[in-house]
Structures are given as C-alpha cells and as structure tokens.
Specification:
410 residues; single chain; 17 strands; 13 helices; four-stranded mixed sheet; alpha/beta
Length: 410
C-alpha cells in the first residue's frame, strides 16, 4: 500500500518564536519526567519511547544522576582543559577498561566526537609519513552529524544542499557492495567509517559478516576502522557497545547520546596506535570533559555497568520484540517489518512515518521517525514489562486509527 499523507495533523503553536526555525517541533512541551514517563505542561502523561533520540538511557530524573550532578554543581562547574580534571581521568579509564580502547578524548556532542575521529584518522597517516592518505569511505544511508565535515561524511544530499562545496575527503559506497568498496580504496584512503546499526538511516542492521570483512580489508590495506556508536552505544543494543555482538574491534569509536544520560557528552575512543598523531595542541575543546559532564558520565556508568543491568536490557528487549511481532501480524496494512537490536528497534511502515508518529503521540506515546519510512522505538533502558505492555497497546490504538482513516479516505 502506498504511503498516505496528511492523515493526522496538528496545528502549530500560535505564539511567535525567536528561535531559528530549523526544527519542525510538535506543539508539545514537557515540564518534568520520571523514569520512562514525561509530564506535559497540560499535566498529561506521555510514555517516552524516544528517550530524546536514544539519549535518556536511564530515563528522566534518575536519582543517581540527579545526585551526581547536584553534588558536582555545588563544587566546580568549569576550569577548561588547561588543568587536570580528575573526574574525566576516572571516566576515561573506566571506558578504556570496558572497551577495546587505550585512550579517550571528551567533547560535547556526537558530531564533535566524529570530528575528532575524522581528524584522528587523518593525523594518524600524516604522523606515519603519509599525509596524502586523508580520504574516508562511508556507506550509503549513514548519518554522522551536522557539521560541514560530518554531513559530507554522511553523504545525504538533503543535509548538504545549500551549504557550499561539499567538504573534500569523503567517498561513499553502497552498504555491502564490496566490489564498489574495492574500486574506491586508493592511495589516498585513510579509513572506513560505519555505524553498526544505521539509526537515522532507518534502523538498518549491518551484518556481523560485513563488519568482519571490513576489518580484514582495513588490515590488508593499512586503513583504520572507525565505528560510529553514537546511537548504538552505552547499552542500547543489550551490550555496552554494539561492536561486541560481532566480535569486530575498531581502531576508533565515537560515542555520545547515552553516555551522558541527557547531559551533553561526546567521546572519541581509540587505540594508542590510532591516536598517535594527536599530540599536544593538535586538537582541543573548551567545554569538553568539564567537571559537570564527567560527574554525570561516571554516574551513568555506575548504573550501566552494574551486575545484571545489561542482561535485564536484553530480557526486556526480547519481550518487546515479541510483542511487536504480534502487533505487526495484526496490522499488516500499517507495518511491514521489525528492525534493530536490543532497545534500538524500528517499525517499517506502509503509511507515512510522520503520520504514524503523530497518531502515536495522540495516544500519549512518543516515537521517533527515521529514514526509509521507519519509526524508531528507543525507550529508556530501565523500562519495565508494564511499560512494554502500555507501549504496545498505544501502538495498537495508533495503528487502528490510521487504518480507520485510510478506509475513510478510500
């Protein structure tokens, strides 16, 4: 069935905004939250299966995070990286101990973490005597951020158009097309960059065998392998990072979103070898790794890395996936398939995804549209089976509403 348009509409807020109009915001504002629930200014309660686009991994107002931020705010907020920041040293060491990495660079966002990864890959080859090796190969459907470099890395025309010449140094090939990849690798190639699951691209899983082949290709050609785990990381797939499912180890990995639980944190993790070119003065940030962010990041790891937490994520995600399979069977005119892993799931639709997101919002459930006509389900990792039951009931009601509107429009 072709995607339908205009089935569920909402009027925009009447008041004029002084903000630049780069966002198509829903006419909805929240004043507080608790766990997987948000409370709007009207007092209505919404079940949050978007988590701020996979950011609020521990839900809203998690007491351990609130305590950590409050305690740090009463001590010191900012000193800059001119001085040592013990909380950052601790968080960096904990991330290194729990991953493949030897070193960490803290920033403020996913885009900045990817900028660090890109610069690190280029500088690695320059430090090895090959400054001509600066090009990075990415894959169709990718999303790596909104800076000039990261929109070029993502390669999507809708993000690049109107911002002048595309930043040089990025080549893109279809995902899984190894002939195209082989023909693109050349003497200027520095690295391959990929998301283990494409989030914005429609929650498209990258098969473990593809990742293994990419690792082998990098080893063969002396390239670095960069994983963008900004959306897939910090427990989202049921492991600390998604690369663990495949057994493939990157050289560089970008992390953000869930690592701050809602506080802006980005981090670029790497082996010591991959980071060899980033010496004193070659890269930096004013706010990255500030004491407030580091206190929250450590509090997030206290919870995520606690015994049994990730196993619980795997259990509840399996339950959610089973319930969603029943939903897809009941509404074949609305849904076509379930995608993703852990609590990073997508529903591929036969109707326009923005219409379905609006229908879900009318049922007081928040979901996130993505590419390839998918809606993402990215709930907090602390959801219960009762939250799952309520979410599925609301998705069911949204699908029934859409079906009734389609019948009425026929």
């Amino acid at each position: 069935m072709a995607a339908s348009r205009g089935l569920v509409t909402e009027s925009p807020l009447a008041s004029h905004s002084a903000l630049v109009s780069t966002y198509n915001r829903a006419p909805l504002a929240f004043e507080r939250g608790e766990g997987a629930w948000l409370v709007a200014e009207t007092g209505e309660r919404y079940l949050d299966f978007g988590a701020g686009i996979a950011v609020n991994g521990l839900g809203h107002a998690h007491p351990h995070l609130v305590e950590a931020l409050t305690a740090q705010a009463q001590k010191i907020w900012h000193t800059s990286n001119l001085y040592q920041i013990p909380q950052g040293e601790r968080l960096g060491q904990r991330l290194v101990d729990a991953t493949f990495a030897d070193v960490a660079f803290f920033a403020n966002s996913g885009a900045e973490a990817n900028e660090a990864a890109i610069k690190m890959a280029r500088k690695y080859h320059a430090a090895g005597g090959h400054p001509e090796r600066y090009r990075i190969i990415t894959f169709e459907g990718a999303f790596h951020g909104r800076t000039l470099a990261t929109i070029a890395a993502g390669g999507q025309a809708k993000y690049i158009e109107g911002f002048g010449p595309k930043v040089d140094g990025f080549d893109q090939v279809p995902l899984g097309d190894f002939e195209a990849l082989a023909s693109t690798i050349g003497p200027e190639t520095a690295a391959l960059m990929i998301e283990p699951i494409q989030g914005e691209g429609g929650v498209r899983n990258v098969d473990a065998e593809i990742l293994r082949r990419l690792r082998a290709i990098c080893d063969e050609h002396g390239l670095l392998l960069i994983f963008d785990e900004i959306q897939t990381g910090v427990g989202r797939t049921g492991r600390f990072f998604a690369y663990e499912w495949s057994g493939v180890t990157p050289d560089i990995m970008s992390v953000a979103k869930g690592i701050g639980g809602g506080f802006p944190i980005g981090v670029c993790l790497a082996t010591a070898e991959a980071a060899r070119g980033l010496t004193a003065g070659t890269h930096g940030t004013t706010f990255g790794g500030n004491p407030l962010a580091m206190a929250v990041g450590n509090a997030v790891l206290d919870v995520i890395l606690a015994d049994g937490f990730l196993e619980r994520v795997q259990q509840v995600s399996l339950h959610l996936k089973q319930r969603l399979a029943e939903l897809v069977d009941r509404h074949p005119r609305v849904f076509t398939e379930i995608r993703g892993q852990g609590l990073m799931l997508g529903l591929k639709l036969n109707v326009l995804n923005t219409d379905f997101a609006a229908a879900a919002r009318a049922q007081k459930l928040l979901v996130i549209p993505a590419g390839d006509n998918v809606v993402r389900l990215l709930p907090p990792l602390i959801i219960t089976e009762d939250d799952v039951a309520q979410a599925v009931d609301r998705l069911d009601a949204a699908a029934s509403t859409i079906e009734a509107q389609v019948r009425g429009a026929a």
